Amino acid sequence: AQSVTQLGSHVSVSEGALVLLRCNYSSSVPPYLFWYVQYPNQGLQLLLKYTTGATLVKGINGFEAEFKKSETSFHLTKPSAHMSDAAEYFCAVSATNAGKSTFGDGTTLTVKP
Amino acid sequence: KAGVTQTPRYLIKTRGQQVTLSCSPISGHRSVSWYQQTPGQGLQFLFEYFSETQRNKGNFPGRFSGRQFSNSRSEMNVSTLELGDSALYLCASSSTGTGGQETQYFGPGTRLLVL
């Protein structure tokens, strides 16, 4: 069984500030972890994923995430927020089958000018 | 390479009707998954098809069904629609869906409104 908890359904930052979106997971087997972004009326777009190897994963649009097994976390960060980063972000976990991913409830990121 | 396409993009139905949604995966992808997205329940897994066979199923009633064709295109059907079925239905495809590390590519979704 697997589950994902995203802490904070809404996060607001100023343009240029650090973005930190939190994700904790639970998995009975070594997990594969994903972050997706969703813009209004669109599907999900993959930002980055952790499979094996390096625990610091770099993704698109300047985002990165660090897999911390001891903390069962996979937090998403970006050093400097841009207005175009305003969207909803989803953390997901899969184990043996990518086609049956479990998603968190999502975090809406607002970027203030 | 074309992305995942879903048709129709928007749909309005009334309670009791049935609806069929279509998904065309990325060329060469054989795994197609369906998710329901609602404000209250978030993203929930409906089912996954691979090589015309349902490989996984989520916790949805039997009113929700699907199928996959030999060209990997997939359809999902919802019979006897209820107000609570109003949602964004997302389709995702991956190469084989075997192994949790595969990336899923999502379509833009079909927004269904049940009146």
Distance between the termini of chain A: 41 Å
Structural class of chain B: mainly beta
Main sheet attributes: strand count, strand direction, barrel closure of chain A: 6 strands, mixed
- Largest protein-protein interface: A-B, 27 and 30 residues
Average pLDDT across residues of chain A? 91
| Residue runs with pLDDT of under 50 for 5 or more positions of chain A | none
Strand fraction of chain A equals over 45%
Helical proportion of chain A? Answer: under 10%
Average pLDDT reading of chain B = 92
Q: How many separate helices of chain B?
A: 0
Strand content of chain B: over 45%
Gyration radius of chain A (Cα, Å) is 13 Å
Structure class of chain A: mainly beta
Q: Choose one word for the global shape of chain A.
A: globular
Q: SSE string of chain B, helix = H, strand = E?
A: EEEEEEEEEEE
- How many helical elements of chain A? 0
Order of helices and strands of chain A: EEEEEEEEEEE
Low-confidence stretches of chain B: none
Give the structure's gist in a few sentences.
The complex is a heterodimer of chains A (113) and B (115). By secondary structure, chain A is an all-beta fold. Chain A is built from no helices and eleven strands.
Structure, described:
The complex is a heterodimer of chains A (113) and B (115). Chain A is built from no helices and eleven strands. Chain A has strands at 2-7, 10-14, 19-27, 32-38, 44-50, 56-58, 64-68, 73-78, 87-94, 102-103, 107-112. In chain A, a hairpin with a 5-residue loop joins strand 6 (56-58) and strand 7 (64-68). By secondary structure, chain A is an all-beta fold. Chain B is 0% helix and 52% strand. With 115 residues, chain B is an all-beta fold. In chain B, strands 2, 4, 5, 6, 9, 10 and 11 form a seven-stranded mixed sheet that branches. A four-stranded antiparallel sheet of chain B has the order 1-3-8-7, with no helix packed on it. The mean pLDDT of chain B is 92. Classes of the chains: A mainly beta (113), B mainly beta (115). The interface between A and B is medium-sized, with 27 and 30 residues.
